[in-house]
């Protein structure tokens, strides 16, 4: 059996940890006077809309980052009331109160779209 190059493993782990830190919403931590509660609620949207509200390039899911809070909130209200069709958003929107939607919308409005 060949000798494995064990010293490379900690170095690799360090690289992984560093890139994970970059990929995580560290940006949000940097510009954050936004309430932690809103951030926690907004995290529920991140699996589809991307961390910080910016979906990966080529994703069909619309971005939320940097869009006007009033626009995000009214889209959510429309999904919730059945005025706007969608595959998943009508159900998701129904799970949030008006106050929660306002807080989440404000959080995404304050998020900078990636690349800025
Ligand atoms: C399971 C994936 C998923 C999650 C989780 C999710 N969304 Fe969406 N969202 C979508 C998809 C897909 C659309 C397109 C409409 C549809 O098919 O429902 C969308 C559309 C939207 C739109 C309309 C944007 C536009 O320009 O038309 C808003 C606003 C929105 N989502 C907000 C949210 C918020 C806020 C959350 C978290 C509370 C959230 N979404 C969580 C998948 C998701």
Helix/strand layout:
Elements: H1 8-23, H2 26-30, H3 36-49, H4 69-81, H5 89-94, H6 98-109
Helix pairs in contact: 3-6, 4-6
Bound molecules: heme C.
Characteristic key phrases:
single chain; 116 residues; mainly alpha; Cytochrome Bc1 Complex, Chain D, domain 2; 6 helices; binds heme C; heme; Cyt_c-like_dom; Cyt_c-like_dom_sf
Quick structural overview:
The chain has about 120 residues and is mostly helical. The chain is built from six helices and no strands. It is globular.
Q: How would you describe this structure to a colleague?
A:
By secondary structure, this protein is mostly helical. It has a single domain, classed as Cytochrome Bc1 Complex, Chain D, domain 2 (Orthogonal Bundle). It is built from six helices and no strands. The protein is globular and about 30 Å long. 18% of the residues are buried.
């Amino acid at each position: 059996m060949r000798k494995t190059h064990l010293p490379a493993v900690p170095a690799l782990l360090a690289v992984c940890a560093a890139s994970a830190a970059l990929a995580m919403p560290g940006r949000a931590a940097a510009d954050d006077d936004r309430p932690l509660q809103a951030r926690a609620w907004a995290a529920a949207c991140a699996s589809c809309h991307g961390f910080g509200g910016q979906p990966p390039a080529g994703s069909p899911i619309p971005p939320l980052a940097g869009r006007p809070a009033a626009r995000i909130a009214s889209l959510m209200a429309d999904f919730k009331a059945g005025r706007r069709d969608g595959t998943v958003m009508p159900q998701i929107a129904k799970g949030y109160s008006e106050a929660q939607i306002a807080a989440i919308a404000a959080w995404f409005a304050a998020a900078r779209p990636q690349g800025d």
